[in-house]
Amino acid sequence: MGSAHSMSEEVRELVSKTGFSSEQIEQLHRRFKQLSGGQPTIRKENFNNIPDLELNPIRSKIIHAFFDNRNLRKAPNGLADEINFEDFLIIMSYFRPIEPNMDEEQLERCRKEKLRFLFHMYDSDSDGRITLEEYRNVVEELLSGNPHIGKESARSIADGAMMEAASICVGQMQPDQVYEGITFDDFLKMWQGIDIETKMHVRFLNMDAIALCH
Amino acid sequence: MLPATLPLLGMPLPGEGAGVAAEAAGESVLPPAGLALLRWQWHEVEAPYLVAVWILVASLAKIVFHLSRKVTSVVPESCLLILLGLALGGIVLAVAKKAEYQLEPGTFFLFLLPPIVLDSGYFMPSRLFFDNLGAILTYAVVGTLWNSFTTGAALWGVQQAGLMASTVQADLLDFLLFGSLISAVDPVAVLAVFEEVHVNETLFIIVFGESLLNDAVTVVLYKVYNSFVEMGSVNVQPVDYVKGVASLFVVSLGGAAVGLVFAFFLALTTRFTKRVRIIEPLLVFLLAYAAYLTAEMASLSAILAVTMCGVGCKKYVEANISHKSRTAVKYTMKTLASCAETVIFMLLGISAVDSSKWAWDTGLVLGTLLFILLFRALGVVLQTWVLNQFRLVPLDKIDQVVMSYGGLRGAVAFALVILLDKTKVPAKDYFVATTIVVVFFTVIVQGLTIKPLVKWLKVKRSDHHKPTLNQELHEHTFDHILAAVEDVVGHHGYHYWRDRWEQFDKKYLSQLLMRRSAYRIRDQIWDVYYKLNIRDAISFVDQGGHVLSSAGLTLPSMPSRSSAAETSVTNLLRESGSGACLDLQVIDTVRSGKDREDAIMHHLLSGGLYKPRRRYKTSCSRHFISEDAQARQDKEVFQQNMKRRLESFKSTKHNVCLSKSKLRLRKAGRKKKDGSADKETPNGKPHQASNLPDTAAVILAVESDEEEESDSSETEKEDDEGIVFVARATNEVFQEHKVPGSMDVCPSPRVIPPSPTCAEKELPWKSGQGDLAVYVSSETTKIVPVDMQTGWNQSISSLESLASPPCAQAALRAARPRACAPPRGEELRDPLAALATPAPEPHAGFTFTPSLAKAGRSRSESSADAPEQQELQPLMAPEDHGCLSPGTANARWLIQFNRAGRL
Q1: Bias regions of kind Acidic residues — which residues (chain B) (predicted)?
Q2: In angstroms, rounded to a whole number, what is the distance separating the alpha carbons of residues B139 and B132?
């Protein structure tokens, strides 16, 4: 990425943009290079080279999320073909642990950001709603690891979850009411009481082991 | 207490003092003059009798405490029990002139402690525990070491400074020994207090996990110092210190290993108990206890062993054992633990009264109190500071305060101090007194104040929300995402290893330890789904009578069961016992309201109260509980719930009751096996004779009722449909597919053929089946209550019904139920067709005026009204199909599906 000077300039920019420390950024950059095979961008195929990812039942959804324009804050929908390092960092920044000195407002925003990422993963057609069909898709993938649980069961689980979501979010449904899907507000409602900020984070520090592993 | 009660029990000798002595004396005085009519043999039953009486006293005390909500909400139960123990001890002391019934270390360690530890280990939220394992281990190992060293050393310093009486003869080693036993946080006390405080789960698991795991450290320190003291401090070689450190690892890791080995055996054993379900709960307790005793025998950490055994085996055991065994294990475990805990605290109180063991020294007592509080707080702050460097979610100051303050000491410390050898530790009496004061102070003072403190500090409380399916799904998604991100980042962190472990578990461990049928459906999401359904079913069945009674009433929100429903329940229960089938009545074609009501009741019971009935018939053996019945019952409950969950989606108040009952009806129809039909027939038979006269009236009652309804409210009409979701483009009947789907993965994938009662077989209109279906489309993703569509038709029709007699409207409604009624097997086709001919009967009934009908209607009969409507109407107006297009369309789907399911 150019000379040392421009690198640090770039890094500074990235630090302010994503909140990672320059140390972390360097480490992530190393990893990025490793994944992309020295190219400036990563394509979907690059993710297939990660051996550990293969066993993940929702692998395709996760990889998808990396290329989702909504997550990349580029466009309200659609998929990017390839992502550069900055995009990679933006995606990664969703998984940053919360800072201890955040105030309530920041905390709330951080929480929403994280949830939005998750929401986008469910909402594959970017219409702002998790419809039953989309929900079923995710559940089917989740359960795909167990060959003994058929699609039917996965469906019934998704349906049950949808019912539950409807009863949580709308409460008393009128007979003529139609529940079209889980909106983001409903999604927030469902996550109430669960501290996502205590869960959705990955340790980015101390990644010296990376190079050794691969 | 006991000597005092003995006279009440009829002891012939009112001798004070030990009852045994008095009894022995009494027997020797009485000459064996011939055959004694009555003989007291107190000494033969003494020991178990005393145990039983103590437990009884403790349990009664518990009941008394909980009579007043106010008291228990402020004062923790452990405090009350200690105070009660003090009072009882005082009475014993006053009566017997010497202290009796103390907390014996042997009893405590061998009998009282294991159930509590097993309970806490088995029901430990393992995910939470392992998520915080680092912190827990730090506090348990480093914290306990720190506490014991500093407390011991500081006390020694106090003695050196001359603040203690010279009678306290102890050197540094003695103080370190004392420090080791006094510094360990006690799991029993912590559990007793924290369970009532409800702090957030992370905080709870850290404090509680620490109290469990620090046992290893305490045991090691205690034993090492004890042997040093016994050797004499001058004889201790440097190599002994090394051994001491090594023993820390041996004791803790060894204890954990013993626990895991037993957990493995336990899981493996339960895999093969399919034919002897009855011993499953016993196995759990036996093997866990064996783990405890084995560890104790090898002088390893027994608490750690049982904890690990409980944590390790739970997943597999729960999957292997039957549902009933699971409940049995749960309740027995909780009962034993609560029992042991109660007795421990009470005995602690009683033991404190014995002043002969006491030796008070103000300096020592105050010093100890001060130091344990101070060093605990200091230790917590220091360790948390270090831990927070690594923790992604730091523990804040408030957490630290609660953790420091929650360091309660309890019976373990007391038992250990009693175990000291007085010849080797001359200051034992002082230590005993101090320990008692410390235990009382921490349990009573800290226990009392921790609740207000938590409130005042606004500690994040745990919100006891029920686990929801969505939550489980999201969290799973989450785990996978995090693991994936770690993979992408290339950092092999916690999520990575957890993921690895889960895969290993799935591939090897679970296959080995789980019974195949259980392994196949093993999935956490599925589990939660299943559990939620079971829970719903239970809560639903709990209100069984209520549902039915409100079914036909115009006040659907009626809060309590009607007496009518109750009587028929009892009737039914009584009658279902007899296996006689009176053929005359089977072919009796007269439809009485009572008859129908009973049939409904029967179905309701066969659905809701399935378990007891099944048990009657199939399991006469004490050693075997029919697996078949068990599996079937689970499945049914499960299926019912599916429907109910779908149904609960809808909401208007009266709906719930009405549609519920109908669901039940339909469900119930599919329930029984054909073979059992003969036995079931007698339902309602005895009523028939008496009901014959008012049959016509009853039928009319339905219709008049109908009219009232249509006049009064629109919604109730619609309600009759229950909740029905219809697909916009109905391609697939969701509900019906789902059930078989779920069964495929159930242990015995046998579709239970619905079996109607005989009456239903012969008289198709007696079955209330098929009146409700739940659909969700597969194509469109929108869920549309069918009421929207049928409701429209109905609102029109009800307008008409204002002008015209109710039968018009009833006919309209008829279309759906009839069409929906699933074919009851091929052989039933003919009777159905044959019996359809007497159909005009209800029409005849309509010629009566509604007022007449009302006169003939009794309260009890009205409870069956709603089902009757459905049962009658199909016979009245089949030609009305056309006007209810959406409904009939659905109905057709249902029929098709049912056929498929049958085939």
Answers
A1: 703-722
A2: 11
What is this model's ipTM?
0.85
Distance from C-alpha of B145 to C-alpha of B165, rounded to nearest angstrom: 27
Q: Collect all residues of chain A within an 8 Å Cβ-Cβ radius of residue B785.
A: 173, 175-178
**Is there a contact between B476 and A121 if contact means CB atoms under 8 Å apart?**
no
Residue B112: which of B62, B44, B54, B61 has the closest Cα?
A: B54
* Residue partners of B72: CB distance under 8 A and separation at least 6: B65, B66, B80
- Of B514 and B889, the structure prediction assigns the larger pLDDT to B514
Cβ–Cβ under 8 Å, residues B390 and A205: no
Nearest chain A residue to B742 by CA: give it: A153
Query: Which residue, A155, A182, A164, A186, is CA-closest to B644?
Result: A164
b/e per residue B236-257 (b: at least 16 CB within 10 A): beeeeeeebeebbebbbebbbb
Task: Point out the residue among B490, B650, B741 whose CB comes nearest to the CB of A175.
Answer: B650
Helix (H) or strand (E) holding B304: helix B302-320
Give the residue extent of every domain in chain B.
45-94, 103-344+351-457, 467-543
Rg (chain A; Cα; Å): 19
Chain B CB contacts of A138 under 8 Å are 473, 477
The residue of chain B with its CA nearest to that of A30 is B489
Q: What is the pLDDT of residues B386-407, one digit of tens each?
A: 888 777 677 788 888 888 888 8
Considering only CB atoms, which chain A residues are within 8 Å of B488? 31, 35, 47, 50, 53, 66
Is A178's CB within 8 Å of B783's CB? yes
- In order, the DSSP letters of B535-579 are HHHHHHHHTHHHHHHHHSSS-TT--S--HHHHHHHHHHHHHHT--
pLDDT tens profile A63-114: 878 887 777 777 777 777 778 888 888 888 787 776 666 677 777 777 788 7
Beta pairing partners, A179: B783
Q: What residues 616-645 of chain B have any CB closer than 8 A to a CB of chain A?
A: 642, 645
Give the residue-averaged pLDDT of B508-534: 72
Which residue from A28, A92, A163 is facing B649, i.e. has the nearest CB?
A: A163
Count of other CB atoms within 10 angstroms of residue B186? 24
Classify residue A125 by burial, with Cβ atoms within 10 Å: 0-12, 13-18, 19+: exposed
Alpha-carbon gap, residue B759 to B582, rounded angstroms: 11
* CA distances (Å), origin B563, targets A82, A182, B181, B466, B550: 71, 44, 62, 34, 11
B740 contacts A153? CB cut-off 8 A = no
SS3 string of B699-725?
HHHHHHHHHHHHHHCHHHHHHCCCCCE
Structure tokens at B330: 């749960």
Contact criterion met (CB below 8 Å) for B420 and B402? no
How many CB atoms are located within 10 Å of the residue B470 CB?
A: 21
Q: What is the C-alpha separation between B852 and B854, in angstroms, rounded? A: 5
Judged by a CB distance cut-off of 8 A, whether residue B783 touches chain A is: yes
Backbone φ and ψ of B399, nearest 5°: -60, -40
What integer is the mean pLDDT of B233-252?
Answer: 83
For domain B103-344+351-457, give the fold.
Answer: Na+/H+ antiporter like fold (1.20.1530)
Mean pLDDT, all residues of chain B: 66
